[in-house]
Amino acid sequence: MGNALAMQQDLVAFLVKQYQQLGPIFRIRALNQEFVILAGPEANIFVTQMGADKFRSHEVWDGFGCEFGAQNSLIAIDGPAHSQMRKLMKPAYSVSNLLADIPLLVDIAQTVVKRFQVGEEIPALTLFRLIVTEQLGRALADHAPGTNLQSIITTIRFGLNVHISKQTPSFMLKLPSYKRAKKDYLAMGQEIVDKHRTTVRDRKDLVDNILEASQKPEFQDMLGSEEQIVFASLGPFVAGLDTAANECTFLLYELLKHPQVLEQCVEVADQLFSEGLPTQEQIRAHNVLHDAMMETLRLHSIAPVVTRTAAKDFTFAGHSVKEGQNVMLATTVSHFLPKFYPDPYTFDIGRYSEERKEHKQRGAYNPFGIGTHICLGAGAAEAQIVLVMATLLHLARLEQVSPQSKLRVKNDPTPTFGTAFRVRFSEHRH
Ligand code: HEM
Known about the structure:
alpha+beta; CATH 1.10.630.10; about 50% helix; about 10% strand; globular; binds protoporphyrin IX containing FE; heme; heme binding
């Protein structure tokens, strides 16, 4: 099938239709490449249980790291070396580490929100990128992105669109605007690494751990060069940019579209701040805001598929896949199957209640990818989205600018409203 256009317009809807017609394995042609698609709960269970040695990330991701002189980054390696790097980075990317300094996280969100006067407008994505990137940068790398935020956004957008989604031609990397942004981005990374070499923190952060590991023989392939150390240390500034910031944007969009759910979430937010600052347990507790976040991750996944290369010949659902074949794991097709989620395109936070627990069915819920590279920051991301939204709802009331106009989700490189979804501050509540 040469159906790139249909795919581009709504990738998951297209894949859901193909899955319903063809079953859990089929082929498509897109962007001059052929992909084998593994879709639906059967594929999700297969990849989780038996996929560890069957897929490689290397071919898909290495070009992105090499753009910054950094081969063998965490996402671009497989097998034992990948397990070793994941183990090294896990403590820093954990939810308990992110939530270790809740006053800092709240202060960052509060400072950004308080910058806006009643009546001022801003793209929701810009608002959330400001908050999320500073929170992750300060908590994991002891550095605020400050005026470098735009350089980070430009660098990552070009890098991913050229090397990963391949929707942008490579000559775009020669544009002076990109080259300037990349230079600033890498200079910030070098500054962070240099600062960590000469200062000591009470609690070691991600960069401290990277620097320590870079001295060990077993990490030489991954962290042996200065470029690799800088690239890995910049991870926190990239981790939330397209992910948590876009999910916060989609969540706010759904809340403004569902005023009753919004009011319940405002109540939860006020409770969280009723005795000062929320605790780790409160942020991670099951409540309406948590369920709204979960439903947003189901309906608006920023990673609807993950791409890989088959690492060996294998058989799935009676079909053989050959080593070297491009594979797309359509992890979120199951999010739209009525057998798991009745009326699947409806925003319904009741799905996560004790009685229904629709997401707990096997293979049904995969917003954070699947297999060996499953999101290392999943717990941190969920907590961050809840905390950011709770802080915002507690502090201010927002309304959508031009609510009648139709918003289009584009791929840039992840599904996003871009800057089209604008909000207005209509009241400062606290
Ligand atoms: C809602 C927000 C997020 C979503 C939906 C998300 C999704 C994903 C997905 C799908 C992958 C796997 C990509 C692949 O297999 O090709 C991934 C990897 C990763 N994510 Fe996230 N992510 C989110 C937020 C975060 C945050 C906030 C952090 C850091 C605190 C983070 C850290 C990572 C890391 C380090 C990896 C690489 C793991 C590896 O290669 O082993 N993510 N994420």
